[in-house]
Amino acid sequence: MPISEWFNEIALGSGLIGSFTGIAGAIVSYKSYKKVNQIKVLDLRIELKRSIADALSDFNKLLEQMETSNQSRIRLNATRGLTDSSIMKKWKDNYNMDQKAVNSIRPELPNEHDEYDKLNPEGLEIKLIEIHKLNKKIQNLYQKYTSALAADEESRRQIQEDRRAIMTAGK
């Protein structure tokens, strides 16, 4: 057999090996791509469920914080003798508006036990963004009432200091 035929045989063998390797590489790449997408969907689903649980927990904390802050402000203004003042009316109006905001958030909250197995990655991302926006609203209201409660505590401290100063001056 002449050398040129050997080269043809080697070239044909190398070409077949290269073709099989390329096909095998494409198959492995496709399987890896599918696996990565499955992992991505699983990660998104876990993150969505975690975000939903956080939003529900934060919503319940918000309800408690609003009630605590409202009672604190009522007691503080009663101590100051401002129960029928414009300050208290403004507080009540703001509180009522925030109650309406909370009542509008409540129906938007998803059920913790909803299943999201049928959603594709894009659908899961959309749901995650919705929950993030909802949680941002909850956090903003929560921060507002946390700040109000801190202001009430500072006012109480100031009232106590004033009373001590009056009592000390009277002795």
What does this structure look like?
There is one protein chain. The protein is an all-alpha fold. It has one domain (40-170). 87% of the residues lie in helices and 0% in strands. The protein contains three helices and no strands. The protein has helices at 3-80, 86-105, 121-170. Helix 1 (3-80) runs antiparallel to helix 2 and helix 1 (3-80) packs parallel to helix 3 (121-170). The chain is rod-shaped. The protein starts with a helix and ends with a helix.
Please render the helix and strand layout as text.
Blueprint: H1 3-80, H2 86-105, H3 121-170
Helix pairs in contact: 1-2, 1-3
Question: Key terms for this structure?
Answer:
171 residues; single chain; mainly alpha; rod-shaped
Protein structure class: mainly alpha
Question: What is the general shape?
Answer: rod-shaped
Number of structural units classed as domains: 1
Provide the helix percentage.
over 70%
* Number of distinct beta strands: 0
Order of helices and strands: HHH
N-C termini distance: 126 Å
Major pleated sheet? none
In terms of DSSP E residues, the strand content is: under 5%
Low-confidence stretches: none
Oligomer status: single chain
Summed up, the helix count is 3
Computed over alpha carbons, the radius of gyration is: 33 Å
Mean pLDDT: 90
In short:
The protein has 171 residues and is mainly α. The chain has helices at 3-80, 86-105, 121-170. The protein has one domain (40-170).
